[in-house]
Amino acid sequence: MASSFMDENIDPTLREMTPAQLEKARQNSQQLDLNHSLEEQEMSSNDLSTVAQRLKCKLELSEEAEADLDDFCAVPPEERQLLLMKNIWLYVKAFLLSSTGVCYVGDSSVHVMIKDLIRISMQNDKAGKAVRNIAHLTKKLIGKSKSIPQTQQLYMCLSIARYIYASMPLAREDNYWEEVDRMLHGMRENGDDMFVFCLNDTYQQDIKKHGNPAKSGIKSVEIKVAKVPNWVHKINELTPKVQISEGEGDRPAKQQRVDAFGDEDGNDLDDLDDEDTNSQSANDTNHQVPPEN
Fold first, then answer.
1. Which of 58, 235, 240, 272 has the least CB density, counted as fewest CB within 10 Å?
2. In this predicted structure, what is the pLDDT of residue 52?
3. CA 108/CA 285 separation, integer angstroms
4. Between residues 17 and 43, the one the model is more confident about
């Protein structure tokens, strides 16, 4: 029995087709889609290999980093996407937990994790008391990562974030990180000395209210002597140069990127060859904020 198509816009030759003809047309269409998909994958891998060769010529990568880059370009697109997601998580976390951070606005999953743990740290239950001290809070946020040092500078940065959450209930929703950045921006307007003074003052208030990290049993490290990968040193170097940019109309504020992903001397971010990047990011992805009791 033929299938009739009454739409006047359909080609007359297609108005009546048998089920067998319809099935054959469907199979042909699926095969064309499959061939097109395979061509796109092959083209993508070839393009990435070309880009990889250009990067090797432009950047001073270690032999291990070059091998990692080749391996990354050779894997299937699905696996490559998973690797990117893991690395992006690690880089965002290293940026937001940098000891030199002065700008935090954003809406990544790491933002949500930090804000949620700050909320929990202010609860009067077992979960809250476990991360009340800024040292315990910081350690929980860092998780199993070996790339993020636990420093006193990071304690100070997180004390600002907790101060905003505690003192501005109306800012606990979507504009929370904007308020954190607004406070940091105001502290920096009067120069570095005043910024350090205000930062330390807020930190001392946090110690009086939530506990002294020196009595937590957790040892902090000096950022200058912390043993971290080169790419973390580069992030810590560039993080202070990220500034808040006011949004337009209903658009929220956002971060301004440093020019060309380089520093003021024009150097590239070329040392992303941490040997534990992939394995550690997988560990970080499994990190969970403790449930609220």
1. 58
2. 83
3. 13
4. 17
CA distance 256 to 232: 19
Q: How many angstroms separate the CA atoms of 210 and 161, rounded?
A: 14
Distance CA 257, CA 196 (A): 24
Residue type, position 276, single letter: D
Q: What is the pTM of this model?
A: 0.66
Residue 134 token pair: 């800024």
Report residue 265 as tokens.
């001397």
